[in-house]
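Appendix B, record 7
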Amino acid sequence: MKYHLISDNSFFLSCVEWLSELDGDAVELVKLPFDIKELSISPGDVVVLYISSHRYRTQFMRFCTLRLCRVFILVDVPIFRSVRKYFPWLVNASVSIQDLLSLIRMARITEVKYQSKTRQLRNIFDLITKGASVEDVANFSHLTRDYIYRVTREEVMRYGMADCNRTAMLICRDINLITELSGVSGNKIPVCHS
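Structure tokens (predicted):
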């Protein structure tokens, strides 16, 4: 198992640059932009993403295989409750280094499970984050506006985010992208015991 800390934030990476190994396993620090083809991420690895740029985060998640990885995402939005049942985990970016290391260790011993998302839900988030109005999404999808509002709000709250704003919608879209590209609806990777 390897640990990958990937960020476009130089300050964050400088705070963890002393971390060359964790519990005997290698730690890879990656500063974006970076050639994703050079990454060697394997199933079961712990991947910590702190990518402030929505563009970089989306590109990374679209082109990097995170299949069966223990992914958690540091975000610059308030998290009112931490959800640890399914990956990816969302963590507020203001987390202390000590708490971050505790979370990394917790991820290591947690079974990799992703919650499957419907194509309809993924399409709703794709359309809204591309600038379509709720009215347009409702008409295009043959759904009611109330349904669109309800499912987007539920999805945002499912990950512990309080505000259903554009940033939260982009984060949910990226999470849905990980789930879709991972194709892990029923697949699990066993817990790693140290």
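Remarks on this record: Residues 119-182 form a domain with the Arc Repressor Mutant, subunit A fold (CATH 1.10.10). The chain has a mean pLDDT of 85.
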